[in-house]
Amino acid sequence: MTAASRAATARRRWALRAAMVVAIAAAVHALAVWAVPRVIMSRVLAGTGAAGGGVFLPPMTDATQRRIVMPSPDLLYATCAFDLGTAPLRIRADPKAPGYWSIALYASNSDNVFVLNDRQAGGRAVELLLVGPGAYAAAPAVPDGATLVTSPTARGLLLMRVLVADYAAQREQVEAARATLRCEPLR
Predict the structure, then answer these.
(1) Mean pLDDT within 37-56
(2) Going by DSSP bridges, is the β-strand pair 182-185/89-93 parallel, antiparallel, or unpaired?
(3) What pTM does this model have?
(4) Pick from 11-15, 57-61, 147-151: least confident
(5) Where are the chain's structural domains?
(6) Are 77 and 69 in contact (CB under 8 A)?
(7) Cα–Cα dist 8/18, whole Å
(8) Which has the closest alpha carbon to 183: 94, 90, 115, 114?
(9) Which residue intervals of 48-117 are DSSP H helices?
(10) What is the DSSP string of 15-56?
(11) Edge to edge, what strands does the sheet with 55-56 contain?
(12) For residue 50, is pLDDT > 50?
């Protein structure tokens, strides 16, 4: 074998190795982009007592709490994990908070599916009918005045946020606002 052919063979080996490294890196990257949000949401759902449709009202955020990544100390949270596999979820709230509030729905891959805030609600009570991607035994009847929201995944999380300027002074109002949240299977 000549020196030129050895050099050409070595270049081909290096090119093949470089291509393999790039292919492995691309596969690992794609897997991470796909898997990380799902793993995070799985842990969040497991930590909220998931799927029962019950509302979880954690205490006001302080430096020791990290259930939600980097929670804001100016927000009071309420969560509701859901599983739409067998029945739609009826979500109701009438916050009447003194300032900003929002209700956001997240799919099991952490994609934001729906958001409604105090300005959009215009002082009216909130009523949502959340349905999953699959078919139910019977088509759910949408209650009068309710907004139909379709989740791309059966499992997910509702996150309600209520802005708090001074918790000590506003405690009764903001706690009452978030306590209006109801997440119940549609019957």
Answers:
(1) 63
(2) antiparallel
(3) 0.72
(4) 57-61
(5) 55-185
(6) no
(7) 15
(8) 90
(9) none
(10) HHHHHHHHHHHHHHHHHHHHHHHHHHHHHHHHHTTTTS--EE
(11) 55-56, 75-83, 155-163, 101-107, 112-117
(12) no
